[in-house]
Write a structure and sequence with these properties.
The protein is α/β, with parallel strands linked by helices and 261 residues long. It has 2 domains: 180 residues, Aldolase class I (TIM Barrel); 68 residues, no CATH class. It is built from 10 helices and 10 strands. The strands form 2 sheets. Strands 1-2-3-4-7-6-5 form a 7-stranded mixed beta sheet. It has a 3-stranded antiparallel beta sheet with strand order 8-9-10. Strand 6 and strand 7 form a beta hairpin. The longest helix has 13 residues. The protein starts with 8 loop residues before the first helix and ends with a helix.
Length: 261
């Protein structure tokens, strides 16, 4: 969810935060305009922040984000979020030949701060100019990290049963690193994520191009019980595993920016 898109983000968080039994309220953001909103978001009940950052180099930041400036603001806002007590994750899509030389720089962020840096395998989506040669598997990333003497103690950490990321920790580090392994090792059988797009469509799989319009069902007057039945049916149709890398590259799917984190 982008702060620039939802001007009523604080009010929305207040409404969601008031839902009984809701323990975690998370938001994904590029972090550019985050700082001035952090105190209000905290008061509104936001607990977790996922901040996207694929590079810490100025020239690559401009290339990847099409913004001439903003990298320093994103970094500042990451540390501000940590200081304010948000559970903070940094999402980094790792691409061979693009930002892979920064792999250990991101790991270093976890030394003195309780940040979870999540390395995401490069995935094919509409509009992201997918190239198979850019995809680095999480095994390759782990090997590269352990080759650095500072991080040779990188070892598996605890994972919750439905986590979509494989967690690791370097001995003595405050934070952790995680790997989202969608391309090399799918986790479909344990994934319990459902997504509702901004135009009201339910996606039971990030890579699936089948969607169910909850917006239309609501406008047609369906009751909450009817909606529950529609959602349950969609979940039951979910495939055991998503398509392979080459098939995904040929499938039509929304760009990630239109799906949401």
């Amino acid at each position: 969810m982008c702060l620039q898109v939802r001007k009523d983000i604080v009010e929305l968080c207040e409404e969601l935060g008031a839902i009984p039994g809701l323990d975690i309220l998370a938001m994904t953001t590029n972090g550019i305009a985050l700082k001035r909103k952090l105190p209000k978001l905290k008061a509104a009940g936001l607990t977790h922040l996922n901040i996207s950052l694929d590079t810490m180099l100025d020239h690559k930041f401009q290339l990847l984000t099409r913004r001439a400036q903003g990298k320093e603001r994103v970094l500042e806002n990451i540390y501000s979020a940590v200081d304010m007590g948000f559970h903070t994750k940094v999402n980094c899509v790792m691409m061979r030949g693009v930002n892979d030389e920064e792999l250990t720089d991101f790991v270093a962020m976890t030394k003195e701060h309780p940040i979870d840096v999540r390395f995401i395998e490069y995935m094919p989506f509409g509009g992201n100019k997918w190239q198979k040669k850019k995809m680095m598997s999480y095994i390759e990333m782990i090997d590269r990290i352990r080759q650095d003497d500072r991080f040779e103690s990188l070892a598996k950490a605890y994972n919750e049963p439905n986590d979509t990321a494989r967690s690791y920790k370097v001995e003595g580090h405050e934070g952790a690193v995680s790997f989202i392994t969608s391309m090399s090792h799918s986790f479909c059988s344990s994934c319990n994520r459902l997504r509702v797009t901004a135009d009201g469509n339910l996606k039971v799989c990030l890579f699936g191009n089948t969607e169910v319009s909850l917006r239309d069902a609501i406008r047609e007057g369906n009751s909450d019980e009817d909606l529950a039945t529609i959602i349950q049916a969609a979940v039951q149709r979910k495939k055991k595993a998503h398509a392979g890398m080459d098939e995904l590259a040929e499938m039509e799917n929304r760009p990630m920016i239109l799906i949401g984190g």
